[in-house]
Design goal:
single chain; alpha/beta; Rossmann fold; 4-stranded mixed β-sheet; 3-stranded parallel β-sheet
Length: 226
């Protein structure tokens, strides 16, 4: 299960890994926490219209990658906080789909070198997933209505993969699926252009150098079943 904030976050960060796993037969679920409704500078755009556009783009990208299902939690883009409401919504999905692995944003990442300030929604999603692992999805008496009323038993995954964006120390070789990753990114036509394609290709190549391959994605992995 990939838990992320906005449509296209997963494609930028981990879609090479997702495509590799999906092509190998892994059942992948996307859990998109916000509706993506803030991602436009177009004065004529409305939040409702953009939400619909970006949901369709995400569905198209997921089909390209082989993702089995996309769950949209529909929290407002740009306004996300790790509230009990959000925590319960994510814990519910973890209990429903019972993933062996969760991939998500790193809640400790605030800045990307000297060029990027991390979006607060990304930080919030990473924090929510951490709390889902301990205690929200894994503890019976946390949100007890999930098992008492919805019959959703507690679940704890075997591992947590945090998107590395240059800081991870575990790598996945995505050379065989780099074109699939780029095709999935192009599905996000409202967000992704030639400049972004050049940047992400160069970045994946830099990650590949750290592994000694053409292209790679990196992660920090926390093993939860040891």
């Amino acid at each position: 299960m990939v838990v992320y904030a906005h449509p296209d976050d997963a494609e930028f960060g981990v879609s090479g890994t997702v495509a590799t796993w999906a092509h190998a037969g892994v059942d992948v679920t996307y859990c998109m926490v916000t509706n993506g409704a803030s991602g436009s500078q177009d004065e004529m755009m409305t939040r409702q219209r953009l939400r619909d556009i970006r949901r369709a783009e995400q569905e198209a990208a997921a089909r390209i990658l082989g993702v089995r299902r996309v769950v949209g939690l529909e929290f407002e883009d740009g306004y996300l906080e790790p509230t009990l409401e959000v925590r319960k919504a994510v814990a519910r999905q973890v209990r429903i789909h019972r993933p062996d692995v969760i991939i998500t944003m790193d809640p400790t990442m605030r800045f990307g070198g000297d060029r990027y300030v991390n979006h607060p929604d990304h930080i919030a999603v990473g924090e929510v997933v951490a709390r889902s692992i301990n205690p929200d999805a894994s503890t019976r008496q946390m949100f007890p209505e999930l098992w008492q009323e919805e019959r959703l038993e507690p679940h704890k995954p075997k591992a947590l993969f945090l998107m590395g964006f240059g800081s991870g120390d575990r790598f996945v070789d995505i050379g065989a699926v780099i074109e699939v990753k780029l095709a999935a990114l192009r599905a996000h036509a409202s967000q992704f252009g030639a400049d972004e394609e050049g940047f992400i290709t160069a970045f994946m190549a830099e990650e590949g150098k750290r592994l000694g391959v053409g292209y790679a994605e990196s992660f920090r992995i926390i093993y939860l079943d040891r």
